[in-house]
Design goal:
The chain is an alpha/beta fold. The protein has eight helices and seven strands. Strands 3-2-1-4-5-6-7 form a seven-stranded parallel β-sheet, with helices on both faces. β1, α1 and β2 form a beta-alpha-beta unit. It binds NADP nicotinamide-adenine-dinucleotide phosphate.
């Protein structure tokens, strides 16, 4: 019988990780590379060259703006040209814009929905279509949020987009399970990244958050990488359509 740990290996796999210049995306890219994958690391304001350099020759940096309706196709085309295929797609890039709901500008709503939800659908469709045409197995992992379940305050577009990501995950999983393509999501709790710097710096909010987390600490990007590796590897071949919370116990409380 094969060693179970071998089913976590990603040798000869090509993974595309969006938003990999920083935070969760960078940690996930490192984790998948550790398991043997070649990784296409994507950045927006700049290509994810530092992540690629830290990983080494198995990583290549790309750049695309996913707030543009053509950004996903632009990125997928670049990655296909370089690697010829994508076996694992990690839809991690995301943005958050805060305003009171009654004043929320439509332009900001459209940006958040495009980056967090529409580009996730576009990239999943491009990758899924290609996997189906190649009759190849595949993995798609979407980075959702606790706001896939909860509404939040002053972030209606973010909550709507992440709720949509959870539902899209299930919709794609249902259609593609017979093709041996598993689609899952990770809902991170409060993770210390640039995205949450303002919350960490706010003494009151920081204390309230820590009091509510059973684990009693902020998560680290690496806390998400282990879950991402599981959902990217053959170890999870019978797991599809799930939204896995990685939150130090927040949702169970
Ligand atoms: P982060 O370091 O700010 O990462 C966000 C990434 O998304 C950045 O690399 C950013 O690239 C990219 N991005 C933003 N706008 C983009 C655009 N228009 N086009 C393409 N890429 C764009 O924060 P993070 O915490 O690691 O966030 C990663 C994911 O986790 C996001 O989907 C976020 O919603 C989710 N999440 C985070 C937490 C948390 O507590 N940190 C909790 C729940 C969910 P640029 O910087 O180059 O624009």
């Amino acid at each position: 019988m094969a060693n179970l740990l071998d089913s976590f290996r990603l040798d000869n796999k090509v993974a595309l990780v969006t938003g990999a210049a920083t935070g969760l995306g960078a940690a996930i890219a490192h984790g998948l590379a550790d398991a043997g994958a070649s990784v296409a690391v994507h950045g927006n304001r700049r290509a994810a060259t530092e992540t690629a350099a830290a990983i080494g020759p198995k990583a290549v940096a790309f750049r695309a703006d996913l707030s543009s309706p053509t950004g996903a196709e632009d990125l997928f085309t670049q990655v296909k040209e370089k690697f010829d295929r994508v076996d694992i797609l990690i839809n991690n890039a995301g943005t958050i814009i805060r305003h009171n709901a009654d004043e929320y500008p439509l332009e900001d709503w459209m940006t958040v929905l495009q980056v967090n939800l529409t580009s996730v659908f576009q990239l999943s469709q491009l990758a899924g279509r290609d996997m189906i045409a190649r009759k190849a197995p595949g993995k798609i992992v979407n980075i959702a949020s606790l706001l896939s379940f909860q509404g939040g305050i002053r972030v209606p577009a973010y909550a709507a987009s992440k709720g949509g990501v959870a539902q899209l995950t299930k919709a794609l999983a249902n259609e593609w399970a017979p093709k041996n393509i598993q689609v899952n999501a990770i809902a991170p709790g409060y993770i210390a990244t640039t995205n949450t710097e303002a919350l960490q710096a706010d003494e009151t909010r920081n204390r309230q958050i820590l009091e509510r987390i059973p684990a009693g600490r902020w998560g680290e990007p690496n806390d998400i990488a282990g879950a991402a590796l599981f959902l990217s590897s053959p170890a999870s071949d019978y797991v599809t359509g799930t939204v896995l919370t990685v939150d130090g116990g927040w949702m169970g409380r």
